[in-house]
Amino acid sequence: MSMNSYTIVFLLFVLCSGAAAYDALDPNGNITIKWDVMSWTPDGYVAVVTMNNFQIYRPITSPGWTLGWTWAKNEVIWSMFGAKANEKGNCSMFRGNIPHSCKRNPATVDLLPNAPYNQQIANCCKGGVLESMGKDSSAALSAFLITVGAAGTTNNTVKLPKNFTFIAPGGGYTCGPAKIIRPTRFVTPDGRRMTQAMMTWRVVCTYSQFLASPKPTCCVSLSSFHNASITPCPSCSCDCRNSSNCVMKGVNKPVLQCTKHMCPVNVHWHVKSNYNKYWSVKMTITNFNYRFNYTQWTLVVQHPNLNKATQVSSFLYKPLMPNLSTNDTALFYGRKSYNDVLMQAGPKGNVHSDLTLQKDRKTLALKKVILSSVLPHADAFDPLDPFGNITIKWDVMSWTPDGYVAVVTMNNFQMYRHIMSPGWTLGWNWPKKEVIWSIVGSQTTEQGDCSKFKGNVPHCCKRDPVLVDLLPGVPYNQQFSNCCKGGVLASWGEDPSESVSSFQISVGLAGTSNKTVKLPKNFTLLGPGPGYSCGPAKIVPSTVFLTADHRRKTQALMTWNVTCTYSQFLSSKYPSCCVSFSTFYNDTITPCPSCACGCNHKHNCIMGDSEKLKRKGINTPRKDNEPLLQCTNHMCPIRVHWHVKLNYKDYWRVKIAITNFNYRQNHTHWTLVAQHPNLNNVTQVFSFDYKPLVPYQSINDTGMFYGMKFYNDLLMEAGPSGNVQSEVLMQKDKNTFTLKSGWGFPRRVYFNGDECKLPPPDSYPILPNSAEKRPFSFSNTAICTILMIFLTW
């Protein structure tokens, strides 16, 4: 066995054996939740909770994040702005004013975008959606204000919440304990004065794909211009448990489309063309889930030539450099209002784009494919977004007679992983017998037993409240800043301003000072499905706020953070997308592997020409998010197709297409991340927005593509409109560019932050014999890995 063979085997072993929440492409990615106590109340404090998604490419999509914790004592939430607890809990012991939540383990969710203004705070009301840090850092932040009662009223008496949980919107995040940090400092708008929070604690949540799902949720197929064969997704890539209920022709059980791979999403990578100095790839993402579309989807690809990506035609693109010295990973995502939503399985259930990369003559080769198809990381570390996370910050803004008011802010610091509809769900456990008196910008899903309360009844009396974001159309008096987006959070890389969600919560029966407040614990975050694991709440320096006129700074009375990280393995044991390849130099199309996303839905999928698609309500999502996939060989909700389209003298062009095969889900704010060594020389992306992702700074081989607003940032449900596509033009690097050995295909592909299943390397399109004499071939071929992480649940 050659040394290269040993290297491939070792890579596979290492990547499959990890169990920790570590993402090699995003080693520092996490969700940081900071609680800034802004003021003390007679029985607690008011805090602003800020969540920052420091994950490079993992956003929190709708229905958004759900942040939970357990109070250290008997704290309650008197009120909240910008968020709400999804359960009120038992507030029966209260007379008169009733807390917003009395649950000891409240779960908070973001308010929807259209929540009333008097319920909003800064960075709230986004429906729990947090953009990834790499996609849009301004939208990777979420915050809310919470008033906590029955808590400590000084720094010495406040007890930090514990057992933080972060769901964004599914599982996968594990949160560490809350840790007290230096109080956050706030600068006034005029920059002449600085204030600071009374107390601040922070919680860091990291994501593990293994926790989110034990099986992949997508698969990858490959094709190339130089080979007529199409490498499909591997059979049962996403498990074949759904093969008995996927939708076949004549069967009316709307779930996944029947395919061999049974994956909700298929990403197809097609080496489209080979020019003198450039080569092009077409990427297509296809959704095979008839019940789910992907908003703010992201696709992450790793390929050594992504450091010279010249142009991405229809997706937005960002290079990811998690290790600074390596630039071989890219984030792709849809352009807003164009192809950022990957629709449900059907004619419109796909998006695609072309990618052009400049050749590196030292590495590019299409003669012999030696790409290693790597399984999803079982831990919560994303090598393309090492710092990506969902950070939930609790800023105690004021104390109440029996608790405090806090602003809870969730920031999606994942560069390309967002939280799409139905948005995040945040839960936690109260450390004592806290209740939530009120929430602004969010709400709890259950009120709980509040029978012991007379007069004012808390919003939630459950000890383990679960919060969801409010919908955009809520009254203004229920809104909070950055709330009310239906739980949808954009990824930080795509839109930082839309990656934040916040709400205000009033906690009762809690500490009324920094010393008596007990931090919530056991935080859970669904985004909207599993995959996120949240660490415990940690006290951090109090958040400092700057007034609108910049002349004064204020600070939270107490702040703690919870960080939630994503693991695709936790989210789903099967991929949710797959990748296929094709090229201009070979008629063979490498399809997604058979059952790439598992064939669990094989027996209740629906054929693309079925008369059942004409039935009313066929595209209506179900509460359990059960997909209705188009019957395909791969059975993935999403397929990404990478086509190497053209090869010019100094440039080469790739077309990327993302197809949605889910008839029940469209994808808003979709993201696609690709890793390829030529992404460092992206010249033009035609139809997508593109951002290079440089998690390791010294390596510029990763980019994120996403849809253009109001053009293709929505990937529609499966059907004629269920696809988005773009072309990428890349300048060649003559030292590395080649079309041999599968060099033109991405090393990693992520859709909505989840890894996609790729076909076996030996099925990649190859150069014809006559084309092997091209001057671009080199003996040192690149061993590369292709991943796609897709956050949907």
UniProtKB/TrEMBL annotation:
Keywords: Glycoprotein, GPI-anchor, Lipoprotein, Membrane, Signal. Belongs to the COBRA family. This is COBRA C-terminal domain-containing protein. Residues 252-366, 576-765 form the COBRA C-terminal domain. It is a lipid-anchor; GPI-anchor. InterPro entries: COB_C, COBRA_pln. The keyword Zinc does not apply. It holds the Pfam family COBRA. It is found in: Cell membrane. Residues 1-21 form the signal peptide. GO terms for biological process: cellulose microfibril organization; plant-type cell wall cellulose biosynthetic process. One of its GO terms (cellular component) is side of membrane.
